[in-house]
Amino acid sequence: MAPSTTIITGGTGGIGQATACTLLASSTDRHVALIDLDGGMPAGLSDVADRLMVFACDVTDPDSVASAFASVQSALPPVDGLVTGAGTVHNDPSLEIPLVTLHKLFAVHVDGTLLWSQAVGRHFTASGGGSIVTVGSIAGLFGHPRRLAYAAAKAAILSMTKTLAVEWAHAGIRVNAVVPGYIETPMMAEVARIGLVDSNVAAGWTAMKRLGSPAEVAGAIAFLLSDSAAYITGHLLNVDGGFSVLKAE
């Protein structure tokens, strides 16, 4: 295997960081570029710093994305994978949610996913192909009170995933999505701490009666990126402990 690079936006915490660890452990030829607004190296990854770099980028800004991608290409081996995981959340009643919140959520989730997919997609078109994995959410599949902007943005990402998969298949580009349920991330811990979600109640909403771990989502992402998924594109892979099956009954 020749040295190659996977780009992970929003990669300095939670699912993104777990994905970086999983990919780096899979091969000594694997390199990872983490894309973060601040560009700081996350704790716990210093032991793989020779194969990992962090690049500062505002994923909502086309010029920032173009600059960051150029820096990745200059500093690391050829890019063959992209994970678009940058995101944020909110807690607003739908009758009162301000447009600025809606626009902010869409900018980070939808604009960020599209801009990075376009940048890497152009590269893949010239290089002969590659794999993109977007990060959705079960919130994009079901009604989620007080999360209108988040749920709508995640639904848009899932729709975008299907469209790009069909449009770019001729270029050898596969585009799939992971759809996480309730995962024990730092963000989940914070919303539980301030009382927006009860972790025990959320665990009870799944068929497996537990929350998922970032590593479990990372494993699904690594599979979709890999050659083992070479005939899979446009797929939405639920990683939710059976939440969607149980709620569909």
Span between termini? 45 Å
Give the proportion of residues in helices. Answer: 40-55%
**Backbone CA Rg:** 17 Å
Relative strand content: 15-25%
Structural overview:
The chain contains eight helices and seven strands, in the order E-H-E-E-H-E-H-E-H-E-H-H-H-E-H. It has 249 residues and is α/β, with parallel strands linked by helices. The chain has one domain: 3-Layer(aba) Sandwich (Rossmann fold). Helix 1 (14-26) packs across helix 7 (214-225), helix 2 (62-75) runs parallel beside helix 3 and helix 3 packs parallel to helix 4 (148-168). It is globular, with a radius of gyration of 17 Å. The chain starts with a strand and ends with a helix.
Q: What does this entry show, briefly?
A:
With 249 residues, this protein is of the alpha/beta class. The chain contains eight helices and seven strands.
Write the layout of secondary structure elements.
Elements: E1 4-9, H1 14-26, E2 30-36, E3 52-56, H2 62-75, E4 79-84, H3 99-127, E5 130-135, H4 148-168, E6 173-180, H5 186-193, H6 199-204, H7 214-225, E7 236-239, H8 243-248
Parallel strand pairs: 1-2, 1-4, 2-3, 4-5, 5-6, 6-7
Helix pairs in contact: 1-7, 2-3, 3-4
Can you tag this structure with a few keywords?
alpha/beta; Rossmann fold; 7-stranded parallel β-sheet; 249 residues; single chain
